[in-house]
Amino acid sequence: MTIIDVRTPAEYMGGHVAGSINIPLQEIPNRVDELKKMNEPIVLCCASGARSGQATYFLQAQGIRCENGGCWLDVNFLVKNN
Fold first, then answer.
1. Has this prediction a pTM greater than 0.85?
2. Which pLDDT belongs to residue 82?
3. Residue 20 has pLDDT above 90, yes or no
4. Active-site positions?
5. In this structure, are residues 36 and 61 in contact, taking their beta carbons and an 8 Å threshold?
6. What domains does the chain contain, in order, with CATH numbers?
7. How far apart are CA 71 and CA 73, in angstroms?
8. What mean pLDDT do residues 44-73 have?
9. Is the pLDDT of residue 10 over 90?
């Protein structure tokens, strides 16, 4: 599994899921080839789930197995407790 945080670099620096990768939402379309090479499923997160939802919808349309994890704090909780 790969965790991608689609928040801005400044938001990411304020706290993130350990081991996650920061790819801001606006960069997602330009990095599809890179994302296709990552371990699936890809879990996307952000501050509330809105931006990660947009990224999930876009990437699924590109044939990438991914899901919207929602808020990064929720994903962080799940990662730490599994």
1. yes
2. 77
3. yes
4. 46
5. no
6. 2-80 (3.40.250.10)
7. 5
8. 97
9. yes
Tell me the two tokens of residue 4: 């991608």
Give the tokens for residue 64. 């990438």
Q: And the tokens for 78?
A: 């799940």
Residue 45 main-chain phi, psi, to 5 deg:
-145, 165
Cα separations (Å) of 52 from 8, 25, 35, 42?
A: 12, 8, 14, 11
Provide long-range contacts, Cβ within 8 A and 24+ apart, for 5-13.
5/44, 5/45, 5/46, 5/72, 6/44, 6/45, 6/46, 6/51, 6/52, 6/55, 7/46, 7/47, 7/51, 7/72, 11/47
Calculated CA dihedral for residues 69, 8, 77, 41, nearest 10 degrees: 40
